[in-house]
Amino acid sequence: MKFSLASRLVASLLSGTVLDAVVVNDVLNDENPQVQFQAQAPVQVEALPRVHRVLQTETTGIFLLSDIQFDGSALSTRRHLQSGSDSGNGNGNNHRPHQTLNVELDDGTIYEFENLPPGFQKNGLLSGRTTISLPAGTAFSSIGKADTKGGAPAFVSYIRGDKHSRRRRLTSAKEGTRTVLAVRVVVSDGATSVDAATLSDGLFGNGVDPVTLASQYRSCSHGRLEFVKAPDRSGMGAAIVDGVVTLTLPSASVASGDGALRNAITLELYNAFGLHPGQLADHVMYCLPSGAMGGIAYAYVDSWNSVYSDEWCTYVSAQMHEIGHNLNFAHSNEAGTYGDQTGMMGLSYPASDTSMCFNGAKSWQAGWYADKEVTVDSAVTTCFSGDLHGIVDYPTATTVLVKVRDDANLFDYFVNFNAKKDFNAQTQEAGNLVTVTRTALAQERDTYAESELVAKLDAGASFAFAGYNLSVGDVDAVAGKAQVTILPDGQTACAK
Description:
Blueprint: H1 3-15, E1 22-23, E2 51-55, E3 59-69, E4 99-104, E5 110-114, E6 130-134, E7 139-141, E8 145-147, E9 154-158, E10 176-187, E11 190-191, H2 196-204, H3 213-220, E12 225-229, E13 233-234, E14 239-240, E15 244-249, H4 257-273, H5 277-280, E16 283-288, E17 297-300, E18 305-309, H6 316-326, E19 332-333, H7 360-366, E20 373-376, E21 384-389, E22 401-406, E23 411-417, E24 434-440, E25 451-457, E26 462-465, E27 468-476, E28 481-488
Parallel strand pairs: 1-2, 5-8, 10-12, 10-15, 10-16, 16-18, 19-25, 20-22
Antiparallel strand pairs: 2-7, 3-4, 3-6, 3-17, 4-5, 6-9, 7-8, 10-11, 13-14, 17-18, 21-28, 22-23, 23-24, 24-25, 26-27, 27-28
């Protein structure tokens, strides 16, 4: 494997030198890649996009959906965080979408599609699980764009099992142990502000920070999901220690933007350790210097990569939110994207510690409480009446989640008690209330689906939905439970 080629690609991404390249084979996995380079005059980063690779023949990659997060102050303006000509300096268009369609190539670099055919839909393409074919002529720019020139990516196959170690399906791993690597970055005019020891402590605890990515996922899952440090490893000019590595990119600057920096980091990790980043850890977090991107964070769904603006890499809510996307969690909404603040897939907060878990829809999707769930439908269990505990008290509870199927309107409803205590004490909305969230009807538990918070109910309140009536009796905030009854229309009691 020839890492000198990777080094040249890093330089082309960051220096502004355009490599006029025609790629016939995978540039990192082929021993004799048929690539011809002709260095052209340097250009200013602001003049991008610039093409640095063009496909001569079709090639394959992994389809990825990115879920983009905005901070609370930007919620109404929808500032775009993803790679692009606007995002590097923070002056992004206020009307960019909160999701983008992307492709990951075999070297781990990720490119956002542009100039797809009008009306192109991702139907049937599952993020992180689908191999797609890219048309010949697709141009890859140095700011992380893949211009298909009006051509459409084509479905090739679904990725199954662990055939490709760097393409492991993460969604089947919401239990067990997952490794995490955080990447600090030093560029010519800036660096990730937090030092390696502090970053490691904020992710794993190390005996100092009591609320971390690792501790919160461990608590919320009741020990079913553990995040641990990527193994220590020495490489060429870099070393992984306590789950953190620092990379120096002397040709890069803050103005390079997150799209260029993201792919340059990927190639530099390949250079330093001889491995795809997804082989270094199950989840790899890129902590960019301040000013390199226009907002706070984004991540790729059912994938290994997440990207953060500087100190947001240290905030637990952002960590859990973005790693949640890696685990196939979609946004939690309420009258707008990620407006549901009852759990971690809504907004994130600029605070080191946030003790909060997930809403009812995500809690059901995770499967951590499956033995204490009830499904209400028209065929088997037609009603529910009893105490509904918060997930904090799962070990001693009888029921913590109720799902109501609405087959007629193709919705699933999830009812839970949002107990504001212990490791969920800082839930930002509807604390100690019964909440109802809704998603599109799912045939499988682990289906990527945005949820909508539709009801927040205190003692004595009721909610009518999908041919059912939900009523709340006594609420005991200390015990973390509420008495809940769900009956079909016209029924006055739930027969046991």
